[in-house]
Amino acid sequence: MAESMFETGQIKASKLLNDFQEISFLEIALIIVSSWLVVYVMRKALPYLAERGPSQLRLYLLGAVPIIRLFVLTGAALWIIPLIFNITFQNFLVIAGGASVAIGFAFKDYVSSIIAGVVAIFEKPYRPGDWVKIDGDYGEVRSVGMRSLEIVTPADDVVTVPHDRLWSNNISNSNDGAKTLMCVANFYLEPAHDTAVVRAVLEEVALTSAYLEYSKSVLVIVTQEPWGTHYKLKAYPFDMRDQFAFITDLTGRGKQAIRETGSQEVMVQAIGQGR
Amino acid sequence: MTDDAHLPTCIKLHDFESPKMPSKRAFEIYLSKASMLFKTDSEADEDAISSDQLYKTPESELDRIAPPPAASPFMQVLDDSLSDWLSNATPNRTLKVIVLPPCDESGTIKSWAEANALECLVPPTHHDILTGKATVPDIQSGFPLVIPRLEAWMIRSYHGLNLMRALLDAITNSKRKVVVGCNIFAWEFLKKAVNAAAYLPDPLTFQALDHDQLRDWFYTLHHDAETQPVRLRYQHSAEAVFKEDKTAEDTNYFKILAATSLGIPWVAWHLWRSNLLTQHENEEEEKDKQEQVDIAQEQRVVFEDESEGQETLWVAALQELSLPKTENDSSLFVLQAILIHNEISSEHLAKVLPDSRPLTAVPLLKRADIITEHNGVLRCKPQAYPAIRAGLAASGFPLGVL
């Protein structure tokens, strides 16, 4: 009797899949549909609210999308797997072995990107709404998917970047979750001028900008180059979405202020850069 | 104000706290905003008297029931707070800085200075500031001096900041007693741009008026109405606004008014006046009105001022004003620029904005009753300030506490 029970147990344990009659396909379908629905609604609703709600909440709402998706998909997977598979240690090894072969040969990059996507959620090298530079592409992270992220460049191009770039590339994040980022306006001047005067007027150009974030500092960096003097006017807008308008404002008014001081901008460098 | 205990107090700027919105009303506002977000219609509550039967009370009548100045509670406190200092021949400090909320049309500090026969420093024109022609007069010695609006000495430009630095230097080096007034938007800007807080330390402001103080102020104004008395009833319930027994009054309206107006007297005063409505008088409507009163009486609403010959004004519920939607929030740049300067002409407004696009929002803002133009000068309407502030805050513009 005991021997027969042991044999039945052994047979049952060695079965990889549950009996078809035992699998509730309806339940599995419901879990998949509900998970998809939750993820879909979150992907649509949170960015919608983020664009229309207070700007302070924008980045939190956008950043919640990949986190919610990860939890929903993990929950759904943990719910479905026991419904289909007969989970034992022996079966786990079988599944893991099979999966390793399949991943190793066919889905290596895909799975690498998915794992990198999960790591990215916790390490936060980029979040939806951040301004990042990856492989020379600079833009706003529009969405963070399971396998890749989408960046919208200032030229309105959408660049899809797989998460696995995380393993090998440097990722430059301009705001790192903050609502503002540093903007730099460059000015190139002939060397014969009063640096103190130009520094002061450039600082005031930033201080009188309508885009300025008051809580951040304004800096003017001066470096001497072989062709003249390079001024970098660094300041923060109160909303990073205004960064290009802010730089345009600083550049336009900065050039005018420099002219009023009697200083001259260099011309040769501009021609040299165009070649 | 009925007694001194109900006057607001003069406090340090960083101690300022706005009155809180009653939770139920705050929830209703969030709900209504959420429903607007998803573009569904919200149902209006049943009122005791419908809005169709009411019209805006004429200004002359309003001046009798809620007369100006809109800043009278603050003027009284200003007097109380500064009289000792003014009379002291050797005060510890010769400088007093008062930071006020914006949209003060009545010029609280200037009125106070004039009432006390104090000299006010006349600011230069924006044109002179922008062209670098404006200079700071000699204020080294003499009788106490008042600079009612520091923002009038500045324009958000290179020359504007230069003049402001010269003025701050002159104030710091002056041996006179100097009272400097400044609105919070200009103050926040000047703190950043010219480090104004270092020149003008320990700014004071007034604590926000709470619902009790607002109620007492409007009650006093209403009872001081010299000629024919007027009874005030809430539009939604027909209940009397002011009763013999103050504890039996419905305080919700004044709580909402205090929170909506941020406790700023001139904002509350304008909102209060805009909520006082008059009923159209004709036979049919008289009949309706009687029916409304009958219904209210059936509902055990207490009427205490049913004496013959009294005119009734209806107090409408506070409506939340909203800013018109413009591309890239360009209207907000206009509003921020106006608030920083208190008032500015369209011509000079163009010079303090990043480009000309936001200017297209000006006609829209005028139509929406957010700003007003008088002799070519643009100002924000006090009753629109809560909506403006909320709009600026939601878009991340730098704001002060007031």
What features would you describe in this structure?
The complex is a heterodimer of chains A (275) and B (402). Chain A has nine helices and eight strands. Chain A is α+β, with helices and mostly antiparallel strands. In chain A, helix 4 packs across helix 5 (108-123). The mean pLDDT of chain A is 86. Helices cover 42% and strands 13% of the residues of chain B. Chain B is built from 16 helices and 13 strands. Chain B has helices at 23-37, 59-65, 72-87, 108-115, 126-130, 158-173, 184-194, 196-199, 211-223, 252-260, 265-275, 283-298, 330-341, 346-352, 361-367, 385-394, and strands at 10-12, 54-56, 95-100, 119-120, 145-147, 178-183, 204-206, 230-234, 276-279, 311-315, 343-345, 371-374, 377-380. In chain B, the strands form four sheets. Chain B has a four-stranded mixed beta sheet. Chain B has a four-stranded parallel beta sheet with strand order 3-6-5-4. A three-stranded antiparallel beta sheet of chain B has the order 11-13-12. In chain B, a hairpin with a 2-residue loop joins strand 12 and strand 13. The two termini of chain B are 22 Å apart. Classes of the chains: A alpha+beta (275), B alpha/beta (402). Chains A and B meet through helix 7 and helix 8 of A and helix 6, helix 7 and helix 13 of B.
